[in-house]
Amino acid sequence: MFLDILLNLFLGLLIGFVIEFIYRSYNAKKIIIPKFINYLMYGLTAVFLVFIYNLNTSIVWKLILIFIFPTLIEFIIGYSYLKIKGKYLWTYFEYSPNFMGIITPLFSIFWFIIAVAYYYSILPIIIASLN
Q1: What pLDDT is stored for residue 45 in this prediction?
Q2: Which of the two ends of the chain, N or C, has the fewest CB atoms closer than 10 A to its terminal CB?
Q3: Rounded Cα gap, residues 31 and 98, in angstroms
């Protein structure tokens, strides 16, 4: 289980870095190297998915948790950074609705799709290869 967690943490961070790099660079029309904290939620979500994968509950509850967790982590990271540093890591003020400019349902859906894709395509391969 420890290797599952560790490997998924690193893979989630790598995937998060790539997604953030492409998204931020495309929007800025120049190369943007994302801060570690910007893609930390991907690594934490990948670890969370390991626990969900081993959870003995219905698929409906798993999907609900997979929807809630990435948004919750995004909010905690974004809000904490705002309170500590006094500035936003990202803003969703241009999207309606949003909560404090830190989270928005549109991106919650994106995180959900990415997490479900990871859960059903990558996670089973990793877990099977380590067992």
Answers
A1: 96
A2: C
A3: 27
Confidence (pTM): 0.90
Task: Name the CA dihedral angle for 97, 98, 101, 102, rounded to a multiple of 10 degrees.
Answer: -160
- Which residue type sits at 23? Y
Chain CA centroid to CA 83, Å: 21
Picking from 128, 95, 89, the residue whose alpha carbon sits closest to that of residue 109 is: 95
Given a contact cutoff of 8 angstroms between Cβ atoms, the answer to whether 71 and 103 are in contact is yes
CA Rg, the chain, in Å?
15
Cα 38 from chain centroid (whole Å):
9
As given in the structure block, the two tokens for residue 101 are 């400019």
Q: Which residues of the chain have pLDDT under 50?
A: none
Q: What are the residue ranges of helices labelled H in the chain?
A: 2-28, 36-53, 59-85, 105-117, 123-130
